[in-house]
Amino acid sequence: MSTVAISGRRIQVNVFPAYRRQRAAVPWLRRVAQQALMEGQAAQGRGRPPRYRALSLTIADDDTVRRLNRDYRGLDEATDVLAFAFDHPGVYEGEGLPPPAADVPFLAVPEEEGFAGEVIVAFPQCQRQAAEGGHSPDDEMALLVAHGVLHLLGYDHVTPEEEQAMQTLERRILSKLGIQDPRR
Question: Which of 34, 40, 98, 99 is deepest in the core (most CB within 10 A)?
């Protein structure tokens, strides 16, 4: 596990051991998450100081992400990215009540005020989506990290208007990182 302070923001990055020697470079992942955190908050409140200064990012395997999706969203299916916001619940689509997010095995406990939550990306799913889309795994990973961070900030894509707004912001984040949106 690695944590660093960047411009007053703490981005904790956890990479499952199987992916440490692959393309999941921790400094680059921090940079993507940092940019998404800054841009997402700037779009929410022009001129207001940022509410969130910290988040945790985990690069995991498919089985872990599927299990978390089942347990905490009620969807027993594979997915590419999950976001567990610290201060607001996500949509639970299962029966009954979901278990508390505090039970997520590697969800970081906030050490300070301003902790947004945890983003978890399925590395193998990221690679598959990149291959299917004909673009690099790095570009796909950047998109997934940005997407997850925006969910932490309360953005969603339930309606066409929300989806368009979220994708516009994702393109802005990627552009600031010198990455073309891989969905184009």
Answer: 40
